[in-house]
Amino acid sequence: MRIYVALLLIGSFFYVTNSQDVAQEVPSEEAEEEDPFYKNPLNRLASSASNFGYDLYRMEANKDSSSNIFMSPMSIVTALSGLSLGGGQRTESLIHRTLYYDLLNDPDVHATYKDMLASFTSQTNGLKSTSRIMLERKVRLRMDFVTQLEKFYGNKPKVLTGNTRLDLQEANDFIQRQTQSKIVKFFKEMPNGISILLLGATYFKGQWMLKFSPQETKMRDFHKDEQTSVSIPMMSSRNVPVRYGLDSDFNCKIVQLPLTGGVSIMFFLPLTVTQNLTLIEEGLTSEFVHDIDRALQPVTIDIRIPKLKINYETELHSTLKDSKLRSLFSSPDFSKISSKSLMLSHVVHKAALELNEDGAEAAPRVEDRNRNYFPLEYHLDRPFLFVLRANNNGALLFIGKVMDPKGLSI
């Protein structure tokens, strides 16, 4: 695997990972060796699924570079991966290539996916996520598809009754039950013309390892651009232990903070308010973020973070129609689902994320002599991007871009 140079600036010191050269990209025998992290089949699957998540985020972001975007791609990946069980060879192969499964060499990919879903449930207490496949009325489902979908992905497909009121209530009740009432009224009304509908819903209530003091949360300016600012609640804390670096290629400062439940959040903050986030977005891959995670250095900083409560919903079928999956909407082979001709018609996603002062314990006074200390300030007071990942396998649980936090603040 080729390792790309990423130069991280910590205060006035430079830190370069062992596989990097300061002046240029130099492939070496060491660089070509497989990272031990990727020898685990579950980690490789999480990386592949997350890479589709980054792709999906980019496709949405390219529609409108100036808008807020929040997604939990894993719920859509789960629905697509389950749907592949119903595809004939051509359609199954298409979905697997799009999800990068063809790079895994894992004949038991669905069993591995089941293990990955179980790891989220057991370690990420604040995460409530579900997906479902819904099909048009009067479809006779093949039992092999129903059995395998439930075995590996935990949910049976749902055939609509044709009674709009009952279908709406059942769908919303399912989401509310699966998310423990964190997401209610997923649908305001049932979409028309359903053949196959994929839905994905995720809620996450973040709890910091080190809590913020509510007394330190104040209204402060967030600079949307050089001319425009909005006043929002901004949490702040001093001498916070974080992992930090500066990427000289993307001209952004990166901070990673741990949360409870086996997850961490990584913020990407451009050096200037005028800098476009597109360059950072285009560079995001599982491997790149994994390399950043290894390169960041422990320091203590003074930090400010917007207090956020985000509810975001979007219809993704128009986006996916412009992707490698376009044929799923016109001429797929879902003969393993039913003898009736079916095609993907709708993909609906809803994500909710809450970040406030709550944490597991109070931030201590920094006494650790092993931790470098620089009087650094890290203020998320201009457009920024974040990724929320599982610590054990790097799975992308949430990704978002905050361009204007007004209306997102609690």
From TrEMBL:
A biological process from GO: negative regulation of angiogenesis
Serpin domain residues: 54-405
Annotated GO CC locations: extracellular space
Domain of life (superkingdom): Eukaryota
Pfam families in UniProt: Serpin
GO MF terms, alphabetically ordered: serine-type endopeptidase inhibitor activity
Keyword Heme: no
Keyword field: Glycoprotein, Secreted, Signal
Signal peptide: 1-19
UniProt KW Glycoprotein keyword: yes
Subcellular location: Secreted
Similarity remark: Belongs to the serpin family.
Record protein name field: Serpin domain-containing protein
